[in-house]
């Protein structure tokens, strides 16, 4: 139905973004990339010379940036203070700094508010780490995606050749998973009622079909 909320959580590089955009496009739903919001916050901190490992300094400035998420699955732009930051938030610098910034409770509280405003109308596929557990536990469909770390690293390299070799990509993904799973506030976890899909040996189309099937069954 058009009011459905689909919550998709999982580890870094498990295929959440491609899956969610594909599902939203197939079903005519909106799409929200909450990871991009945490990346936008991180980009703002780096641009303003804030030490991303100083939680108090991050907390003190996290109310400042105006972060606006586009929800069109074919063009999910994100703007920070009016400027398109869609490419900037994917940089290696932001990727390395985003997990520490995301541990700060004030950051999570601020973005939670933005997320709930956008999800409120329903008809949306939302990806992140804590959507089914904290942001929108009442979601009609909850999915947890995972994949073998080596497979995740290979996919990342195939997508972004500039990220270097598979071994360092895998180390980066594992480090983000470690911080994201271990933090005190809203850690990455499999939400109650989530359907676990291991994408290691599945194609993107197969994963999209599985999730579309869950949404159709729920409606
Ligand atoms: O999904 P993506 O890899 O772009 O997310 C970047 C980072 O943002 C994650 O590694 C995590 O630290 C943080 N994040 C989060 N909660 C979410 C989504 C992302 O903490 N709901």
Bound compounds, please? Answer: cytidine-5'-monophosphate
Query: Rg from C-alpha positions?
Result: 16 Å
- Sketch the major β-sheet: 5 strands, parallel
User: Could you list the spans in which at least 5 consecutive residues all have pLDDT below 50?
Assistant: none
Number of helices: 9
Portion of residues in beta strands equals 15-25%
- What is the number of strand segments? 8
| Fraction of residues in helix | 40-55%
Strand and helix order? EHEHHEEEHHEHEHHEH
Mean pLDDT metric:
95
Spatial arrangement of strands, main beta sheet: 2-6-1-7-8
**Shape field:** globular
Instruction: Report the end-to-end length measured between terminal Cα atoms.
Output: 6 Å
Structural class: alpha/beta
Give a written overview of the molecule.
This protein is 49% helix and 15% strand. By secondary structure, the chain is of the alpha/beta class. The chain has a five-stranded parallel sheet, with helices on both faces. Strands 3-4-5 form a three-stranded antiparallel sheet, with helices on one face. The longest helix is centred in the C-terminal third of the chain and has 17 residues, at 166-182. It is globular. The model has no long low-confidence stretch (mean pLDDT 95). Bound molecules: cytidine-5'-monophosphate (C5P). Cytidine-5'-monophosphate (C5P) is lined by residues 12, 34-35, 38-39, 98-99, 102, 128-130, 176, 180. Cytidine-5'-monophosphate is lined by residues 12, 34-35, 38-39, 98-99, 102, 128-130, 176, 180.
């Amino acid at each position: 139905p058009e009011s459905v909320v689909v919550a998709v959580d999982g580890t870094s590089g498990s295929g959440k973004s491609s899956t969610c955009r594909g599902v939203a496009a197939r079903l005519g739903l909106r799409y929200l990339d909450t990871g991009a919001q945490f990346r936008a916050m991180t980009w703002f901190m780096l641009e303003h010379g804030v030490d991303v490992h100083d939680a108090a300094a991050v907390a003190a400035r996290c109310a400042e940036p105006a972060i606006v998420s586009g929800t069109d699955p074919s063009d999910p732009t994100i703007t920070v203070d009016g400027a398109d930051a869609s490419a900037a938030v994917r940089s290696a610098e932001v990727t390395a700094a985003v997990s520490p910034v995301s541990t700060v409770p004030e950051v999570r509280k601020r973005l939670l508010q933005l997320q709930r405003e956008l999800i409120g109308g329903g008809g949306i596929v939302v990806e992140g780490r804590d959507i089914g557990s904290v942001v929108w536990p009442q979601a009609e469909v909850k999915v947890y995606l995972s994949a073998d770390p080596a497979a995740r690293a290979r996919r990342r390299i195939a997508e972004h050749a500039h990220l270097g070799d598979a071994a360092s990509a895998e180390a980066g993904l594992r480090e983000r998973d470690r911080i994201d799973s271990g933090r005190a506030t809203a850690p990455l976890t499999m939400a109650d009622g989530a359907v676990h899909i291991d994408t290691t040996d599945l194609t993107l189309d197969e994963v999209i079909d599985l999730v579309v099937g869950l949404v159709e069954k729920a409606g």
